[in-house]
Design goal:
The chain is mainly α. Helices cover 66% and strands 9% of the residues. Helix 4 crosses helix 7.
């Protein structure tokens, strides 16, 4: 009795039908020998190996072609994107340059106008200070008090000063600047005074000069008979500072005569 015995070679699922004759239990004759069985197995393994190698080569060839195709498409796409990007950049540069031309022209004209206005403002401020000096003379205020007022006017705009409190506030602001502090420390050191006492005098100096300022002086005079050493140091600091500005006032410090007596 012959029965088919089927062997399967995976993964390619190809069937080989090998027929073996199994001996019957009741028959003493063996219809297939072990040698034939071994030969059939060898044939099956050879065919499976050959088919596997063929399928592997076919798969690798197909895979390589597919990868080459993908790489080629990718390179073409990248080149297209790069060219498009360059074209877009060039278009934007041209657009920006076209838009920038009128803007630069407007900015240059505006800068020219601002420079002209700055010159006019400086000239107006100069004229304002000259008018204030004339007013000080007419009001019999061309003295140390008027000098402090003009110093504040030079530091701030005249319309910002509403009262005598505004003058003192302006003096306090000037006293906080680095230039003033440098001059003040030098004056204090030269005169051998205490810095804290001079600073204390600064915050009430306008009130003190208002007590002793009467009439016009051809030159602003700081008189020793009218002010204490600390007050004179504060006044001299303000006057020395304004001497470094444009259109400074002419001033001098007057010492004691033989009959005079210094305030303490």
């Amino acid at each position: 009795m012959l029965r088919p015995f089927q062997l399967t070679a995976r993964p390619f699922v190809r069937h080989y039908a090998l027929y073996f004759d199994y001996w019957n239990k009741w028959d003493d004759k063996q219809f297939i020998s072990p040698a034939n069985h071994k030969q059939a197995i060898a044939i099956h393994e050879f065919r499976s190996s050959r088919d596997f190698e063929f399928q592997h080569q076919l798969h690798m060839s197909t895979h390589k072609g597919l990868m080459d195709n993908i790489q080629s498409c990718h390179e073409r796409r990248m080149q297209y994107l790069q060219d498009s990007f360059k074209d877009e950049i060039q278009t934007l540069k041209s657009f920006h340059k076209a838009c920038q031309k009128p803007t630069i022209k407007i900015l240059r004209e505006r800068e020219k106008e601002l420079r002209k206005m700055d010159i006019e403002c400086k000239e107006l401020k100069k004229q304002t200070l000259r008018v204030l000096s004339e007013k000080m003379w007419l009001e019999q205020n061309f003295n140390i008090r008027g000098a402090l007022e003009q110093i504040v006017y030079q530091f701030r705009e005249p319309e910002d000063i509403r009262s005598s409190k505004g003058i003192q506030k302006g003096l306090d602001e000037i006293a906080e600047t680095g230039d003033f502090i440098a001059v003040r420390d030098k004056v204090v050191q030269e005169r051998g005074l205490e810095r804290e006492r001079v600073i204390a005098c600064i915050h009430s100096i306008y009130h003190e000069v208002s007590k002793h300022a009467h009439g016009n002086d051809g030159t602003i005079v700081v008189r020793a008979i009218d002010f204490t050493p600390n007050e004179r140091a504060a006044l001299v600091t303000f006057l020395k500072l304004q001497s470094t500005w444009k259109n400074p006032l002419v001033w001098q410090e007057e010492g004691l005569s033989d009959e005079g007596k210094e305030r303490v």
